[in-house]
Amino acid sequence: DNERRLTGLHETAKIDQFSHGVASRASSVRIPRQTDDDGYGYFEDRRPSSNCDPYDVTAALVRTVCLDGDDRKLSMMYVPTTCVNN
């Protein structure tokens, strides 16, 4: 239950406020120190509860962060070809 979990206490963000920070466990989105140092890497969205579909959450993050909400950019992404084993 997100309302009970995201209280802003005990290294969690508040449910009604978005925040981000480097190496911050109290933020909504945590950016690891190494990612900040390198300028690339991963980040952690600490808000979704365990009953979320991880694919839907990932799709929403990619659309928001990488595509600026423009799904047309998906057509420009690399699509690997299938590998056929002989």
Percent in helix:
25-40%
Query: Over all CA atoms, what is the radius of gyration?
Result: 16 Å
Q: What amount of the residues lies in strands?
A: 5-15%
Low-confidence spans: pLDDT under 50, at least 5 residues?
A: none
* Number of structural domains: 2
* SSE order: HEEHEH
Number of helices: 3
The total strand number stands at 3
For the sheet with most strands, the description reads: 3 strands, mixed
Order of strands in the sheet with most strands:
1-2-3
The coarse overall form would be globular
What is the CA-CA span between the terminal residues? Answer: 49 Å
Averaged pLDDT, please? 73
Look at the helices and sheets and give the structural class: alpha+beta
Description:
The protein is of the alpha+beta class and 86 residues long. It folds into 2 domains: 1-47, no CATH class; 49-79, no CATH class. The chain contains 3 helices and 3 strands. Strands 1-2-3 form a 3-stranded mixed beta sheet. The longest helix is centred in the last third of the chain and has 13 residues, at 54-66. The chain is globular and about 35 Å long. 3% of the residues are buried. This is glutamine synthetase. Keywords: ATP-binding, Cytoplasm, Ligase, Nucleotide-binding. Residues 1-86 form the GS catalytic domain. It is found in: Cytoplasm. Belongs to the glutamine synthetase family.
